[in-house]
């Protein structure tokens, strides 16, 4: 690893994505749990109001991660967003419905209206969680992009070449390796998001809702562990090939990294491509697993704050394992390593990276500080009882 | 036109229009509501508390869709315009990222505190949150318009080659931040948001005053809207003029189309009304404003200055950039621009009349009706303004950099919209386009239904809960 601008930005973008999963992740989880752990109307208002003042701010992590990827790695932003076109479209659609569902649901008395938006909250939260995982799985397995500059086209950049009418179906096709892996990572992500959501509900609410959330977590937890192990096992088998060694220079890697990768090649194949540094990689994965164990006991003891801390740690270790495994690649190409987007050929100029780094160093801590402060202000427990009281008092 | 390109353009325009159905109200109403909250904490009068609450509730209903459509907008650059995104990412991405980090976080986080913090957080914190949220939303507009301003006038940049191709690269960060086109764009848009929000508050107040209900409450609301709106609408005219002057300097084709000026002229006139035969490149009808040379004066601050006409510009651009159509659709651009300006003057009159009639506002039935029916007008004015700005830039997605006299300095940074689109299939773009249209229309209807419901219900004692 080099501590150059590109690496720092790879870490920063990972931090922003992690910020999204850690913050919006729990309210996505609460969204999935919404119809499962809350039965009556007032209980459903408990789950929504548990995330009420914060979900909106949480979603900004997604927007900022998108913006940072655009600014720091424009080739990645352009290639990935156009390649995963339909998948992203579905995610956006789901996020739209989710946002307005929270806003609209309790503004009408009619039962049909409220049931409609309840379902909308469940499905939209589920779809977002699933597709984020599907995208990560597909990317790690390599997607069919080509660097047009290799063929002399200096304008098009990295282009998705599989011309399916609807490329999305390809992402979730269980009969291909990447599709199957994508689905498995997707399911694992959903399970994680549910666990993370439970920790928030235990932290922020009391009574029936929190109790039910706990029993859901105790059932989901073993499934998550099994799926995480399965995904790790499959990820271990992933290899990248090099089709034309001469073109590897297009990755624009620093000299020593290039040599290192060349020395690891076996007949033009980079085996265990995501585990080139197995000690560090496995250390991160073991830490993620240990955090998951800590989570289990915290939930068992109804300690919401601790559970939240451990689910956060689980994701941070797992997320950085993914980033570190792929490093210095950002989007591996299934056509060969030389067509991949690396953090060195996909990045902005050093000047832009420097300017943005200054902005990030100043503002990221400020954002984290005031978000933490706002969280602290809203950390009082709510329950069906307390909401009923609040509604009565306001009318009086 | 290529089908994928056409649908991608329609989709982007549609997203922009829906997004801008919600954004200007966010910009202005957050400020108005914060003013009311300040009055409450300063005077301790219950009525201001109810006012802040009432308008903040409408604000919140409107805000959710603004965020949702904004998210789509940011991601559509990469999804539908990948070649554009990779070509400009080194520059264009930065203000978007800063917008998230510096402004949008602030806006959303503190809005949560404002909307849900009644009686739960200390007064000082609550008031601070209301203002931070309002400042955040306007800062957010600033960064977005810095990004948009750069597409209009790509200052602070050069073209370079990397291992992934040719692209624009940043040479001067402060050059894009203090891009004169971007900065006037911001003031123009921020004041437009204020005018729109003032009309919004005025129209809803008029509705209740016409029904003679909550008279005290809505008379006060109307007063705040009238004062705020009058200042904003006068400011809008002044800034609009400065903005038009920037366009005249940097985008000669947009100016020529916006004024339906075909021939190069010294002492050119402003047209009040025109209809062009775009095939023949001449005006069928034109009614000039009876001040000769005004266009030259407004554009170059000299009644006798030469303004380039569309025909000469077409020749000049063809010689430099090869065959193509370099003049945006004249009738469309002319009318988008002119109707927007006329509406701008109308708002000044609307607010001025209201201030004159204020003492007896609840009985001025005619005026109240006028105010009520004016509600759609500022929305239309905003849309027209964006249509003028964006369609007027065509065929360019990044307009080639010019100096202050319309001379092109950096031709290679110009990127045509037709070059910028993603390699997508027709099926993909059609599916997403249709579903987005249906979704946005459906949600906008639900949103307006709720807005109308809560707006007509008037102030109520209710817990601030989802």
Short characterization:
The complex is a heterodimer of chains A (396) and B (466). Chain A has 396 residues and is mainly α.
Number-wise, the strands of chain B total 10
Order of helices and strands of chain B: HHHHEEHHHHEEEHEHHHHEEEEH
Question: How do the strands line up in the largest sheet of chain A?
Answer: 3-5-4
Strand order of the largest sheet of chain B: 1-2
Oligomer: heterodimer
Descriptive overview:
The complex is a heterodimer of chains A (396) and B (466). In chain A, 71% of the residues lie in helices and 4% in strands. Chain A is mainly α. The model of chain A has no long low-confidence stretch (mean pLDDT 90). Chain B has a domain at 25-178 and 424-466. Chain B has a two-stranded antiparallel sheet with strand order 1-2. A two-stranded antiparallel sheet of chain B has the order 3-6. The model of chain B has no long low-confidence stretch (mean pLDDT 91). The longest helix of chain B has 41 residues, at 3-43. Chain B starts with a helix and ends in a 9-residue tail after the last helix. With 466 residues, chain B is mainly α. Classes of the chains: A mainly alpha (396), B mainly alpha (466).
Kindly list the characteristics that best describe this protein.
heterodimer, A: 396 residues, mainly alpha, 3-stranded antiparallel sheet, 4% strand, B: 466 residues, two-stranded antiparallel ribbon, two-stranded antiparallel sheet, 14 helices, 10 strands
